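Lab notebook, page 48
Experiment: co-folding of the full assembly
Goal: obtain a model of how the components sit together before planning crosslinking
Operator: M.T.
Materials (sequences as entered):
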Amino acid sequence: MPLVHQFLEASAALTPNKIALICGERYTYAELDRLANQVAHALCALGLERGDRVAIWLPNSVEAVVALFGILKAGGVFVPVNPATKPDKISYLLSDSGARFLIASGRNLAPSSALAELSPNLVAAIACGGPAPSYAIPWATLLTGPAPRPPHPGTIDLDLACLIYTSGSTGEPKGVMSTHANVAFAATAITTYLENVPDDIVINVLPLSFDYGLYQLLMVCLFGGTLVLERSFAFPAAVLRRIAEERVTGLPGVPTLFATLLQMDLDKFPLESLRYLTNTAAALPVAHIQELRRAFPRARVFSMYGLTECKRALYLPPEELDRRPGSVGIPIPGTEAWLEDECGQHVPPGGTGQLVIRGPHVMQGYWNAPELTAARFRPGRNPAERLLYSGDLFRQDEEGFFYFLSRTDDIIKSGGEKVAPKEVEHILYSLPGVAEAAVVGVPDQILGEAVKAIIVPRPGAQLTDRDVLRHCTQHLEPHLVPRIVEFRASLPRTDNGKQDRRLLREPCAASLA
Amino acid sequence: MTSAILQHIRSYILSNFLFSDDETLLDNHASFLENGIIDSTGVLELVLFVEDTFEVTVNDQDIVPENFDSATRLAHYIQTKLEASHAVGAPVP
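Observation: model returned without errors.
Model output:
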């Protein structure tokens, strides 16, 4: 398998003058490769050693792209972090990953007055733009040396390329370890079924800290296409205008993005260049699939399913969409999947069970978390092999196509993002006046599920929903902040005294508010 | 007129996104998105606020950073819309 940064190097050798990235300005493959070489040499000069973790806490930007490839070229492991991450959580991520370097926006670094305040492991922080604090090294100083060639740290494809943090039901995010071989295999399999060609122009509005967004960049470099990188989907009309201007052929999205598009007057935008749309992160309602096909008659729609622990597991070939619109398809090329019941027995087609995944895309497990790893990644048929137990319930039809039924944990999927109730509850409990708190997902037309906080105040506490929301906004990333706050006198419990999450999701007539 | 609109936008943002009365938290020129003041779904809430409060119709094509990504930009956009509909002096609650 090629190393991940060799995707960029190979395309730079083959088509040096082709536009690789459109992000404000246009960057050719040769330019990106040269910038990444400069960053790699600069990181080595700062003391980066093979296998060191380097956190990238940046919005979607050319700096994030160059940093990622530069880290890999230097032999490091990149750890992408959502730019909206709050100080408490960045400290956790830095200390959990043991990152020695941090590349961040000046604005994100500004509140920390010293490097050690962020994490004691850090050797250096590099600031991109903004009001950077004095301890930070300006990004521009990494781009000064001549660097026609990358360093030679000796990386092989069994080495880690990245740690991608994902929310789990324990509440603490876990870093999924991906080797170069894992990433290269997954990227190759996905570009194979999408039938990507160098003429493809893909627009990415998803954060590069989210594996779905990250792989858009990696895959484009692999097949030698062009990536249009946007900050977000906050301004849908601006994104549609960009699709029209740049003659974009591929639009990866999540259900919330497509639900928003379907509410717009799409006739105002010339979008006939779109060749395919992909959806993952949560299931698209069948009605939306049908509306999308009417709105984009020239585009093929791919319904897919995956989890960070294997990147992508299933995809539905678009020609099957009419026959089985509710299915997320079959295993990606070169992999297999089946269903098992609670006793670990294979469930034949027609039945329901937990999805189990086998293939070279099954990642290495969770960083520094052997017990969690052992629960999810279990021994396979051959000595060095691991099977991935997805934790999700599926049905399989007689012809082998899979249908997602439900999760087996409490994780909420809101706007395509995973929300661990425990992570939000932990912040709610830190608000004075909260006696008990529970967080559940409730149906929402645009978000799929909206985060709802249910709070039992302490006797005499004068809490308002505004107090709760202000506290959450200060301590949580935007997608984790509850949309709804409800006060109750008590929380429903099961017979053994645990919170009854099913009853919690139902509206309560006896709420206090 | 624009300053009345601006003040109205400011109090809406402070109360609905920053959950605070502290006026110093919001710079009129600061990008809502870059500063994490609002997120994607927040933009849609902002559009509804503009339509309901100022009785203007916001077209999809108008929902772009040039019009919606700071208090000043939004005030300017609303002012232009009100003038275009000959409604200068129309109710600003």
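Interpretation: The mean pLDDT of chain B is 86.
Next step: discuss with group before ordering constructs.
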